[in-house]
Specification:
The protein is α/β, with parallel strands linked by helices and 98 residues long. It is built from five helices and three strands; from the N terminus they run H-H-E-H-E-H-H-E. The protein is globular.
């Protein structure tokens, strides 16, 4: 898979989170030290993400030698993803209620 960052975004990536291998989406909710801590563990990890969103391509790119999979219950979010993320996503229907 091609890298998601260019020389221009590589500088931004260092400012955003020095441990991440990709540039976080500006719409991504997770930022700061929590994001940095997660990125330190990624690269060749087995990483399961509950839900997909603007950050889904970022998670795939941040774990290039690992296995990243998504579970998503909203078809609309799956439809918004690039094809490589759709291929890593399983649609789910949860039956439990709170």
């Amino acid at each position: 898979m091609a890298s998601m960052h260019t020389p221009k975004t590589a500088a931004r990536r260092q400012d955003a989170s020095p441990s991440c291998r990709a540039t976080p989406s500006p719409e991504q909710q997770l930022q700061g030290i929590v994001l940095d801590a997660l990125c330190q563990k990624l690269g060749s990890a087995k990483f399961l993400v509950f839900g997909s969103g603007h950050d889904s391509p970022f998670w795939v790119a941040s774990n290039p030698d690992g296995t990243t999979r998504f579970l998503e219950r909203h078809k609309d979010w799956i439809d918004l993803q690039p094809e490589h993320v759709k291929a890593l996503t399983t649609a789910v229907a949860y039956t439990s209620k709170l």
